[in-house]
């Protein structure tokens, strides 16, 4: 085990895969000379040279499309979005090219590409820079979407993403980059479609991913002091989604709260609720509640922003509701 | 005549594209083909000239008006017609349709339905050639209607910045669906867009397939030498509407007739007819084209449809992600 920050884990995964496979390259805004807007790619230009660590102008549709074109003829691009917010101007490339080329070519083409970058809220960056884009992308067949919460998973899942023959959207978080954790040494690869029990418990299942896993763990500690023992599931992978881990946990706790960033209308949380009610209906002792970003664009004001982003107190209230500790 | 053998080859392919599409239009009216069908009739000299200028190791990417370049690159009529009929023997197993012809073997990478989005994609194929040093050149076709949208310019901007081995071919058929050039763009000489990116440019009318080949070859060789992309605007005309549902009432019969009088296929045929030998050869080719197209209709009709088990298998390479 080696202790490292989330951003170092992402960097190490990129570097190891680039060492292993000359077809892998990193392309995006400020990834090379500037050393990365969030310093994820720090040192990679010096190590791999400008042929493989490539600065782009501000052209998300352009360089997302270039990555896809390079992937269909055999390269394995890693495309960094400075933040996932900016992927909105490349949405057509992801929706119509990355996700569709395989099927509309009758299976002749594959698109082995990774799109990655920070997703979700940061700190007071306003309404256009605080999106949780996973809710748009999980809807699309042909894409895989993962959102690791820990340095170990960040490394292991990014390595899996780079080796995957399908397009993978890899969602990091600006507020996770400095989080430290133990990462196994060696060629550590975490397969997709498997959730993780972040905390064992028997009274209620808290389901989350990415930054909100840490908020759920905080809420679980506070709830333990009140005598409610929560199990926290870190989904890690959103598409594919681990149904088995959900059913197993609900069969034990009979109650669930899904907590994540993103608006309440539809999205990942609604999907999780649908799967649970279909697969474990008889196990439920209470309706499943969701704790989400409030249904408004993100405000700049610091207090209002914290009010809009889901916090531990809202998670606690939801758990108390499903365990009938409060109305 | 000059290059008689090549002239006959090019004539056969232009005639094949035209007859393939005329029969496709007939099949469409019989309900054998669904959805959209965008015909290339009138523009054949561009696809055929381009195919003769490119090497087999080069790549092409085009719009939804894609039957011509697919056939010119070597796709069989059977695979093309079966795709239009939605059959599993089609080039894209009946899953793509008219707008999504793909032929990896002949490095024909679609067949794209979103205007302009395929230019960055094509630049990516060119990027891969530069990255691996495989010596390949990518040629991407787009229409005058794609000249204003963002992705087109991002593709050109990056290709020029990185001197990628790519040729941008604007097939200017004068109409963006039903909107004429003058009504859709402020500068109607679209080759001038190259100036903004510091790219080489060329501009000419597609009346002579040899000229198309030779002038595209200049751009291809420039790209292959590592001297960066060229924007080539080729003025052309589609005789049919934008798609099968378009009666083309936005233009006059006289305008269409005027263009047909300068038809590149007829011109090439007239040149072939000038000598007895090539005339006889052209007549023989006409017969072989008729037989090939008739066979493609029969083949498409007789072919089985794709089955539902193909759907998930062609969505992901690996296990289906749900």
Describe it.
The complex is a heterodimer of chains A (about 325) and B (about 325). Chain A is of the alpha/beta class and about 325 residues long. Chain A folds into 2 domains: about 180 residues, Thiamin diphosphate (ThDP)-binding fold, Pyr/PP domains (Rossmann fold, 3-Layer(aba) Sandwich); about 130 residues, 3-Layer(aba) Sandwich (Rossmann fold), CATH 3.40.50.920. A 7-stranded mixed β-sheet of chain A has the order 3-2-4-5-7-6-12, with helices on both faces. In chain A, strands 9-11-10-13-14 form a 5-stranded mixed β-sheet, with helices on both faces. In chain A, strands 1-8 form a two-stranded antiparallel ribbon. In chain A, α1 runs parallel beside α7, α3 packs parallel to α4 and α8 crosses α12. Chain A is globular, with a radius of gyration of 20 Å. The mean pLDDT of chain A is about 100. With about 325 residues, chain B is of the alpha/beta class. Chain B has a single domain, classed as Rossmann fold (3-Layer(aba) Sandwich), CATH 3.40.50.970. In chain B, strands 2-1-3-4-8-7 form a 6-stranded parallel β-sheet, with helices on both faces. In chain B, strands 5-6 form a two-stranded antiparallel sheet. Chain B starts with a helix and ends in a 9-residue tail after the last helix. The mean pLDDT of chain B is about 95. Chains A and B meet through α3, α4 and α5 of A and β2, α5, α6 and α13 of B.
Task: Characterize this entry briefly.
The complex is a heterodimer of chains A (327) and B (322). Chain A has 327 residues and is α/β, with parallel strands linked by helices.
What separation lies between the terminal Cα atoms of chain A? Answer: 45 Å
With helices defined by DSSP (H or I, 4 residues minimum), what is the helix count of chain A? Answer: 12
| CATH H-tier superfamily of the largest domain in chain A | Thiamin diphosphate (ThDP)-binding fold, Pyr/PP domains
- State the strand order across the main sheet of chain A: 3-2-4-5-7-6-12
N-to-C SSE series of chain B? HHEHHEHEHEEEHHEHEHHHH
Mean pLDDT of chain B: 97
Shape of chain A: globular
- At the first level of CATH, what is the class of the largest domain in chain A? Alpha Beta
Radius of gyration of chain B: 19 Å
**Beta-strand proportion of chain A:** 15-25%
The CATH level-2 architecture of chain B is identified as 3-Layer(aba) Sandwich
SS elements, strand count of chain A: 14
Order of helices and strands of chain A: EHEHEHEHHEHEHEEEEHEEHEHEHH
């Amino acid at each position: 085990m080696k202790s490292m920050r989330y951003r170092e884990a992402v960097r190490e995964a990129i570097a190891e895969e680039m060492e292993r496979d000359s077809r892998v390259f990193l392309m995006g805004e400020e990834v090379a000379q500037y050393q990365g807007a969030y310093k994820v790619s720090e040192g990679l230009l010096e190590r791999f040279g400008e042929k493989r660590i490539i600065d782009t102008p501000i052209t998300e549709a352009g360089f997302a499309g270039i990555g896809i074109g390079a992937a269909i003829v055999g390269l394995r691009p890693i495309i960094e979005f400075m933040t996932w917010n900016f992927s909105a101007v490349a949405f057509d490339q992801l929706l119509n090219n990355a996700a569709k080329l395989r099927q509309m070519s009758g299976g002749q083409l594959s698109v082995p590409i990774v799109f990655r970058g920070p997703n979700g809220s940061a700190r007071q960056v306003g309404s256009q820079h605080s999106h949780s884009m996973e809710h748009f992308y999980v809807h699309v067949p042909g894409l895989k979407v993962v959102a690791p919460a820990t340095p170990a998973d960040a490394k292991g899942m990014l390595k899996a993403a780079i080796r995957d023959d399908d397009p993978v959207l890899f969602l990091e978080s600006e507020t996770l980059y400095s989080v430290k954790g133990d990462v196994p040494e060696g060629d550590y690869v975490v397969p997709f479609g498997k959730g993780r029990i972040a905390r064992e418990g028997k009274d209620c299942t808290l389901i989350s991913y990415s930054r909100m896993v840490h908020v759920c763990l905080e809420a679980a500690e506070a709830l333990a002091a009140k005598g409610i023992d929560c199990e926290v599931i870190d989904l890690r992978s959103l598409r594919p989604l681990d149904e088995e881990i959900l059913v197993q946990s609900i069969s034990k706790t009979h109650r669930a709260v899904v907590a994540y960033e993103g608006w309440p209308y539809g999205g990942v949380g609604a999907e999780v609720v649908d799967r649970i009610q279909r697969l474990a209906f008889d196990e439920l002792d209470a309706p499943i509640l969701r704790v989400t970003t409030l249904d408004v664009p993100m405000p700049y004001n610091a207090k209002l922003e914290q009010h809009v982003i889901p916090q531990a107190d809202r998670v606690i209230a939801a758990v108390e509701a499903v365990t009938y500790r409060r109305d | 005549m000059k290059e008689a053998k090549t002239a006959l080859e090019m004539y056969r392919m232009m005639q094949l594209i035209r007859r393939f599409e005329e029969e496709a239009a007939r099949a469409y009216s019989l309900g054998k083909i669904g959805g959209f069908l965008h015909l290339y009739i009138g523009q054949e000299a561009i696809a055929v000239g381009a195919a003769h200028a490119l090497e087999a190791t080069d790549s092409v990417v085009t719009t939804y008006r894609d039957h011509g370049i697919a056939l010119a690159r070597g796709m069989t009529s059977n695979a093309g017609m079966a795709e239009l009929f939605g059959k599993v023997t089609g080039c894209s197993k009946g899953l793509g349709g008219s707008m999504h012809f793909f032929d990896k073997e002949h490095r024909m990478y679609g067949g794209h339905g979103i205007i302009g989005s395929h230019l960055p994609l094509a630049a990516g194929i060119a990027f891969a050639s530069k990255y691996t040093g495989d010596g390949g050149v990518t040629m991407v076709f787009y229409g005058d209607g794609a000249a204003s949208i963002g992705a087109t310019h991002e593709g050109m901007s990056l290709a020029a910045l990185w001197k990628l081995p790519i040729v941008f071919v604007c097939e200017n058929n004068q109409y963006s669906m039903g909107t004429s050039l003058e009504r859709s763009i402020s500068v109607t000489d679209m080759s001038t867009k190259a100036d903004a990116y510091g790219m080489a440019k060329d501009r000419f009318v597609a009346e002579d397939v040899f000229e198309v080949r030779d002038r595209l070859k200049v751009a291809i060789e420039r790209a292959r030498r590592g001297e960066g992309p060229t924007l080539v605007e080729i003025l052309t005309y589609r005789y049919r509407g934008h798609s099968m549902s378009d009666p083309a009432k936005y233009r006059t019969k006289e305008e269409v007739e005027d263009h047909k009088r300068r038809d590149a296929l007829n011109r090439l045929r007239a040149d072939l007819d000038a000598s007895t030998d090539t005339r006889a050869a052209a007549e023989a080719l006409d017969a072989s084209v008729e037989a090939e197209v008739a066979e493609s209709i029969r083949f498409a009709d007789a072919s089985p449809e794709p089955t539902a088990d193909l759907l998930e298998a062609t969505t992901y390479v690996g296990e289906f992600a749900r």
